Amino acid sequence: MATNIEQLKTDAEELLKSGNFPDAVIKYSQLLQADPKNCVKVLCERAKCYIELGDWSKALEDGRMALDNEKKNPEDGSMEQTSKSKIIEASILCGKACSQLGLFIESLGYFKEGLKVDPKNQVITEELKKLQNVILKEQQEHSETQDCTYSAVSLCSQSVYPGDDQLLNMEKEILSIKYKILDDDYYKMDKNTHIMKDPQLEAQLVQAAYECLSSDQLNDSLTLISKAVSMDPGNVFYRTFRAQVYFNLKLWHKVIQDYWIIPKALRKPDVWKQGGKALMELWLPVLAEFWLRKATQLTGGKDEEAAILFQKVRVKRLYDPLTEDQPIKIDFTQFGRAVFAKKDIAKGETVMTDIPMVMAQSLGSRHIPACFNCAVSLITPQVYFKEKLLMMERDQLNLIEEYWPNVAVEECPHCGKEKYCSKICRNEAWDTYHRIVCPSVNPAAKQIYDLCENKGYGHTADGVWTEIWGGHYSPMILVKLWSIIASQVRDMMEKDKAAVPTIEHWARAKAPFRRFIAYGTIPAIKRLPHMLPVFQSVFANCGGGLTYNITEEEFNGRYYQAACNLQCFSPSITPYHRFMDNIKEDMRAVGMIKYLSDRPPEAQFAAMCPLHACSNHSCFNNSEVCDLDINGRPGIQMIARRDIKKGEEILITYIDTSMPKLLRKAWLYKSFNFWCSCQRCQFEGEQPNECTNCHIKAPEGKNFSACGKCKRAWYCGVTCQKDAWKKGHKIICLTDHSQVNSPEGYTPK
Ligand SMILES: C[S@@+](CC[C@H](N)C(=O)[O-])C[C@H]1O[C@@H](n2cnc3c(N)ncnc32)[C@H](O)[C@@H]1O
Predict the structure, then answer these.
(1) Which residue range or ranges hold the SET domain (predicted)?
(2) Which residue of 257, 469, 534, 662 is 20 to 30 Å from 207, comparing CA positions?
């Protein structure tokens, strides 16, 4: 047997060396079967063959398996040099394969894994450079072919919100009571009777009305056209004309009165659009949406103004109640929802505060105790001081006993998988999501808790141990989101005594999450090929006879909803901070100082917050996201980085803005699917061989001189430099820019 293994090894190596990769794959596969104990090395070799053959998926699969096996069970029993080099080798193979598959962030993740083992590894550094070049090249190709990656209006649906039918009836009642606009046939019939026929006179009236309208004599125009209307009340043209005059006079209910007479089938798209505008002014939003939706539908979506107005109404009615007490409002722009200042906001002031709708602790910080429901820190003296506790004297231990806040951890009594800061949180978690996925009632959900415990690793359907969840956030985000929806549906079913959920139940439960935009280029199922069956089995039985069918589309949509909108945060006040506050007047604290030098460990959370999720990006951001304690619960706030004027858009940064423009652009495109065209991107250059101001190219092999201050712009001469300085380079050159972590916390140089 041993000789057979040796023979297979020699054959495979020779085939690999001679470039016969298909046969080498066969030999390595035989070797894997014959000698599964030494699989890591063989998997790496086979992955190399697949790379040579351009079969990136198979190379990735082998690389992953090698990595998993080595981490779980180093072949030589410890994290010795050989094990380290195997991890590095497998990381490089995975990184290369991912890069070829277009999975750039994943690729970066693998290279980082290798760098953790050997921070100075030359091969990885080279591979990282190559990765950046691939991204930049792709970015350039895309920017040449596309100006804009997506259309915000087409991403936002116009579908009716649950409960809108009742609201629509209420608004119709307002129309009838307040404006005497009745939704019945009698009202229409009455106006349809032709009183006195005199086509010639009517034509003269219309002609004269038109001349008055053209010269802005609105009242005269109104008198003339009203005469024509009185002679032929059902005439669609007269009504449309008069509505236009009323519109110019800003008599909004009169506009609607005239349009209402026109039978629906005869209303032109412009009538629906203008009626929608008048209804916006009367602030009858559900009716306005109805009219603007009609205008959009009748033009097959071509009337962009109607589609944008629709979204403006929707955003206003959904978000105004949330921003009532804040100095901001949400509006709809070419880039979708956006946040604007309602008043002047001074530098350092709070722009907005926001509470998470769904959140989960990052897999990497799971060892730091925090409440599963509200993210409150649960760090104990044991967690903070660790072995230092053993070195302390009685006095200091007493001080800790007296002043470290009591961290009473409540566990889920059924599964013990979730920890909470209080009974209130425990019950809240149960009611809102945990009763759907507590393994005690839903055994399939145990896989999710295990997956989180194992940092994304688990068994595939065919029993292979590998990284099943390689997303940038915890899968618990999606699990909680679906559980919240399922839990709401169950509540509604119980209330309505329904054995099966209705479409209305689902629509109502999903409605709050319609706030979050979703856009991604690679289907989630391709990124995470093993996850869908896991989610499907977890939500097959949500209790009470309910199944949440996690389709491919649902998975894809929710995956990108989270990816596009998540914000990291940490509890800003921890028991450590409270302890520090408590001891400040106690003399014994002096003896403690030497033990208090470390920052408390931070539990990292990611959250979807409704208002924050409306903030767009700028590399010249005027606001910064910070952690905040809101009534004892961790949340987020935005602080003004400079004075912000009323009406100005509130902009944050999604990436580390210390990167040069080309990389910022590439990362924003890769991670958020848009090309940034902010003020800073306009006044910084991409290449030294192009004048940032007039875009003339330098002679072959030559570069222009860089701005002496920021070195981020290049000019063909002093005239261009001065021109650019005046036009806008000055402000961005003299500003300190935000530094937040880029995706995966890595800042490409
Ligand atoms: C967190 S959301 C921001 C709010 C978003 N506009 C909406 O309607 O929900 C992030 C998405 O907004 C869009 N976005 C943000 N900043 C942008 C910018 N500067 N230019 C173009 N699109 C941007 C991108 O589609 C991005 O994926």
Answers:
(1) 311-655
(2) 257
Q: Is 330 close to ligand 1, i.e. is its CB under 6 Å away?
A: no
- Positive or negative, the CA dihedral 29, 30, 35, 38 is negative
Better-scored residue on pLDDT, 331 or 514: 331
611 Cα to the center of ligand 1, angstroms: 13
Q: What's the per-residue H, E or C state across 438-492?
A: CCCCCHHHHHHHHHHHCCCEEECCCCCEEECCCCCCCHHHHHHHHHHHHHHHHHH
Where are the extended beta strands (E) located within 225-354? 328-333, 336-341, 350-354
Q: Per-residue pLDDT for 190 more than 70?
A: no
pLDDT tens profile 113-123 = 888 888 888 89
CA distance 484 to 504: 16
Per-residue model confidence (pLDDT) at position 745: 34
Asked if 742 and 656 count as a contact pair (C-beta separation under 8 A), the reply is: yes
Spatial distance between the Cα atoms of 279 and 285, rounded to a whole number of angstroms: 7
pTM metric for this prediction: 0.78
Angle, in degrees to the nearest 10, between helices 475-495 and 531-539? 20
Q: Give start and end residues of each alpha helix (H) in 337-387.
A: 381-385
Q: Is residue 736 exposed (0-12), middle (13-18) or buried (19+ Cβ within 10 Å)? A: exposed
Ligand 1 centroid distance, CA of 146 (Å): 17
Burial 10-34 (b: 16+ CB within 10 A, else e): ebbeebbeeeebeebbbbbebbbeb
Instruction: Read off the tokens for 629.
Output: 């304690």
Integer Cα distance of 238 and 225 in angstroms: 7
Best of 328, 616, 623, 657 for a ligand 1 pocket test (most atoms within 8 Å of beta carbon): 616
Residue with tokens 């009473």: 408
Query: Can you tell me the distance from the alpha carbon of 330 to that of 321, in angstroms, rounded to the nearest whole number?
Result: 11
What is d(CA 259, CA 245) in angstroms, rounded to the nearest whole number?
Answer: 12
C-alpha of residue 339 to centroid of ligand 1, in Å: 11
User: Would the CB of 613 count as within 6 Å of ligand 1?
Assistant: yes
Encoded tokens for 427: 């019950």
Residue with the smallest CA separation from ligand 1 atom 11 is 564
Ligand 1 pocket, residue 675 CB under 6 Å: no
**Two structure tokens written together for 320:** 């105004």
Query: Is ligand 1 within 6 A of the CB of residue 652?
Result: no
Spell out the alpha helix ranges (H) of 329-454: 381-385, 388-391, 394-403, 423-429, 435-437, 446-453
* CA 336 to centroid of ligand 1, rounded, Å: 7
Residue nearest to atom 12 of ligand 1 (CA): 616
Which residue's alpha carbon is nearest to atom 15 within ligand 1? 616
Q: ipTM score of the complex?
A: 0.99
For residue range 617-636, list pLDDT tens digits in order: 999 999 999 999 988 899 99
Q: For the CA atoms of the chain, what is the radius of gyration?
A: 32
Asked if 568 and 654 touch (Cβ cutoff 8 Å), the reply is: no
State how far the Cα of 332 lies from the Cα of 320, in Å rounded to an integer: 12
- Beta carbon of 712 within 6 Å of any ligand 1 atom: no
Q: 235, 229 in Cβ contact below 8 A?
A: yes
Whether the pLDDT of residue 140 is over 70: the answer is no
